[in-house]
Amino acid sequence: APVIKRADYRPPEWQVPEIALDFALSLTATRVRADLKVVRSDAASGPLRLDGDGITPGSVLVDGAAHNDWRMDDSQLVIDLPGNRHTVTIETEIDPTANTQLSGLYASNGMLCTQCEAEGFRRITFFPDRPDVLSVYSVRMAGDKAAFPVLLSNGNPVASGEHSDGTHWAEWHDPWPKPSYLFALVAGDLVASRDTFTTRSGRKVDLAIYVRAGDETRTGHAMKALIDSMRWDEEVYGREYDLDLFNIVAVADFNAGAMENKGLNVFNTRYILADPETATDGDYDAIEGVVAHEYFHNWSGNRVTCRDWFQLSLKEGFTVLRDQQFSADMGSAPVKRIEDVRILRAAQFPEDSGPLAHPIRPDAYQEISNFYTATVYNKGAEVIRMMTVLAGPERFRAGTDLYFDRHDGEAATCEDFVKAIEDGAGLDLKQFRRWYEQAGTPRVTATLTQAGDTATLTLSQTVPATPGQPDKQPMVIPLRTALFDRDTGKHAGEQLLVLTEAEQSFAFPGFTALPVLSINRGFSAPVAIDMAVATADLVFLAAHDDDPFARYEAMQQLMVRHLVAAVSGELTEAARAEGLAAIRDVYAAVLADGALDDLMRGELLILPGEGYIAEQIAQADPSSIHAEREALKRWLGSELAAQWHALHDRCTAVPYSLEAAARGARKLKTQALVYLAASDPAEAARRAKAQYDSADNMTDRQGALMVLAGIGAAECDEARCAALADFHARFAGNALVIDKWFSIQAGALHPDTLKHVTALADHPDFTMTNPNRVRALYMAFAANPQAFHAADGAGYRMIADLILRLDPINGNVAARFVPPLGRWRRIEPTRAALMRAELERIAAAPGLSRDVSEQVSKSLN
Ligand code: HT7
Ligand code: ZN
Predict the structure, then answer these.
(1) What is the mean pLDDT of each run of 10 residues along the chain (861 residues)?
(2) Which residues are near ligand 2, the ion (C-beta closer than 5 Å)?
(3) Do residue 804 and residue 857 come from a single domain?
(4) Is-contact 229 296, C-beta < 8 A?
(5) CA 372 to ligand 2 centroid distance, Å
(6) Are residues 835 and 851 in the same domain?
(7) Which domain holds residue 613?
(8) Residues 6 or more apart whose Cβ sits within 8 Å of residue 455
(9) Ligand 2 centre and the CA of 297: distance in Å?
């Protein structure tokens, strides 16, 4: 496939200020007529080039007359036009039911809907399908009224009517010029939950969430999230909504989480539907975050869009930051920060250290869908977050105000964003721009010394080589830092140290004894910190640090260091005992700390993930990491058994509500079971069964089932199987909950998980055509280290087989399964060879999608 390079960007030769679309709707043969008003750009002399994908032009008219000067150049329709302004009319026909790729116009459960980002519009009609072509859309659609009673598109409804033959029609007009990727159409049998929002300037906005009949009772949380987001964006970023209505549609078949189409967001049902019986607290949080994210795109993405897809982080990184800030304001800010860092470390750090590493603004791609990554989204958010750290909130806001003012209605670049922050906030971001250019997670080494009355902190940084970028320049790394006095347990104020050189020293007068270093507080920079720090200092920080993230980090470090040493066989028995005792003591202190809220307590009591431990090791042995982590869990389970029992009892007594205290109790309840399951499976199974049987909410039920499903002891098998059978029967027909049933089993600690997943793939409820179901089974499996990394390579084979089977159905989703196999260089040699062999097997298969082919070839290089 051709490589598209950022450096090759050229402005479009033709603009399309207006487009009128007319759809004759049908599940199997939808006819589309597109009228494009095209205008030649100054100094352009070439023909009109319109992108297409899997469609053929039925007819081509220019200014209303048949036109023969056109040809196909690969999939592009090339039309020679005599003048500078014309109306071009093209007809196409699509089979939405055959569209299993779920890009363009497709059918889902009898409804029709679109997904156009990134390049789906060209599967509907011929068009310059690039984000710097902005058009005003008028849409007409007509279809069978019984099959499609609801007809929606972007913007405002203009007119509608019906015919005596049982068909009806609707017209929509969107006054805001937009790129084609934001176009949307939905037609189906849907019901709406409605509310209103009055903007700060007093405009009333009608809000509707469209779902299938029966689901309307489960839209309340999403609606609340929408209203909260609309208010928050006015208050925090000064952004007001700009249409009279805002529609959301939930669809069961969707490649991603949701889509921010102008005035008509389309959502995966999993990010809309919730009630206590069927959605966990995590689901509630995810709904709040995704609804907010899509709403915030109305400004960061839609009003100011991207010039080209290399600028994707312009809208995605910024919008992730905005949704993170929103969720922090709606709930517990420290807990949200810890969760976001955990996601970054679990998903983005491995990307940055693997074969698919790319800067947040990539330089080249074959298939843009492969660049909707944790790097572009989550690291992109971290990069902008560092600007907030450097500028402070008021100056950062001045920067974003300037950005929105300057570029409203434009297709902008990351450079435009940085410049606006630079100008508006009064920062010099010259060197900072390297965050957009260089891939790889910087490593900072920190050394603290003390002499006389001064403590000296020496910081050095390196950015690892990544594919195509062997040599790196120093980054700007803002590190929020505090030095703690050992005697008082306090510090004299936090400082922002900005590391800009390869090596730099910072002096702190007033220390006659060596203080304890607390660095990268709040995770102010997305870097890895290396420091030779005594276990006692980590114990000190775990107990005393007033920055909640730093406290969490001290506990994580304590455990990571112990586990990495244990895995590499470096631990003497004495050191092992000492490390375990230290970890047990900080756990005991956290369990007993009356000043902590339970949500935060739950964060502090999370073991580092196996993937994050593996990241610290050049070539990891997944089985020994798993064994050591389980051993630590077992030790904590047995050493603190009485505390876990008491915790489980205390939390079980807390009644269900969505308040923080009750959510904290639910989080801890299942955590207590997890530790007990490692040390005393029979007792854990007894408690888990009781929790399952008495559950009045999905958080408790799923937690209990997850614990039961993981217990391998034969005497617990009956309880395990009974609970799984009950869960399936209880929620039969509820697709989102049945997804959980698949995930729980595929992610289980049970030694037979691989066998279970093989059987589940043949279960009547499994289907390859629903991305949620595929991800529920196989993503959970690929993220289950013990099962995926089976020593004989059966886990790798399973994922490779999946990729090969799924690719012809949905290449976009199939490609998402390549990165777990692509990590082979970071795994011990025997498994690495097996992983590589599976990648080679995929690479040798004929007819691979561009999505899978790009990911596999990069992973082999
Ligand atoms: N902007 C949206 C991206 C998206 C997408 C990308 C590729 C394939 C399918 C997709 N569905 C939605 C989602 C977002 O970040 O808001
Ligand atoms: Zn987004």
Answers:
(1) 97 98 98 98 96 97 96 98 98 98 98 99 99 99 98 98 98 99 99 99 98 98 99 99 98 98 99 98 99 99 99 99 99 98 98 98 98 99 99 98 99 99 98 99 98 98 98 98 96 98 98 98 98 95 96 98 95 95 98 97 98 96 98 98 98 98 98 98 97 98 98 93 98 98 98 98 98 99 98 98 99 98 98 98 98 98 91
(2) 316, 319
(3) yes
(4) yes
(5) 9
(6) yes
(7) 534-639
(8) 448, 449, 483, 507, 508, 511, 514, 515
(9) 7
